[in-house]
Amino acid sequence: MQSMTHPASTIALAATLRDHFTRVVLPLWRGPGFNTALKLPYEAVSAERPEPLPAQRYRAMACARQLFVFSQAGDAVHAEVLFDSLVHTFQDTRHGGWFYSVDAQGAPLDSTKDLYTHAFIVFACAEYAGHSGNRDALDVVHRTSALIQSHFAADDDLLNAALTADFAGVTGTPIQNPLMHLTEAWLSARHATRDSAFDAPLRRLASAVARHFVHAPTGCIAELPIGSEDNRLEPGHQFEWFWLVKQAGALFEGSGLDESLTRAFSFAQQYGVDPQTGGVCASLDETGGIKDATQRIWAQTEYLRALASHGDAAVLAALPRQIELFRQRFLRPQGWFECKTAAGEVARADMPSTTPYHLATAYGALPA
What we know:
The chain starts with 7 loop residues before the first helix and ends with a helix. The strands form 8 sheets. A 3-stranded antiparallel sheet has the order 4-5-6. Strands 7-8-9 form a 3-stranded antiparallel sheet. A 3-stranded antiparallel sheet has the order 14-17-18. A hairpin with a 6-residue loop joins strand 8 (162-163) and strand 9 (170-172). The chain is 51% helix and 12% strand. By secondary structure, the chain is mainly alpha-helical.
């Protein structure tokens, strides 16, 4: 979006968020949040002092998210360390693909083949390759994308959420979140590689999501396939999908997702955002009733990103106030608040290594 479409005050407010990220968040994960022996980011840092929580595991997805963050930030040295660690620590040389996690000593812990993890490896390596030109990272993007299509395939162009270590058994059937992040990953890979090979898989995936997950009355993309018991609608994911569909542009024409997500944005904003505090709740039922009132920081960042990319001037006008509400409610001098209650009390005190990805993607979409 062109900065000329935004008032100077909005640009200045966005700059305060980026400044906090550069001064506080990035140094936290280069320093105390990084295990220099294993060359991996710790899972979380204490809210009280800049030190990691005791390590029980390290996830490939967390390493991949940090690789994205430092690639986007232009820290080529730290990004290269993270990429090398990702490949050497989490790659399953026996069966192919990637481990979900390793233990505190760096040995394989959970060898499940997880679609969410594989999607983030594609996404992060595409971003890293785009910034660094690293051919090995491009190879990871293409190899992992091919593996996803061949091994995770389910009925009607959907993909299973989890498989056994040897890919032989399905342990998780299709759910929304990994499919969304695979969409994100392939859009990023398409941009980084300029390779049209990602177009057809993206179109198939978008159409499959539209057929199986769109809640027709609201346009929202549900967490479980439509008709599943105790399904839910997450406002944060409506905002996230809204952004992705905007990025896809004409690629998703014919899927119906653009029209659906325009309605989903309005539904999520009406029922999922507290008009006083700007806080975005965790989940709604299919009528707009609140199922989980917890306000997680990632959902707030997705609302900012969706607002910033919305084509309606009246919607866009809410952005400066929302930036300031977010800054006051979720940022603090030492970092951020991961979760709050609707009343504003801290519901989770530590700061996970996965959250800077959400901050980076949101701030990257705000006007500069």
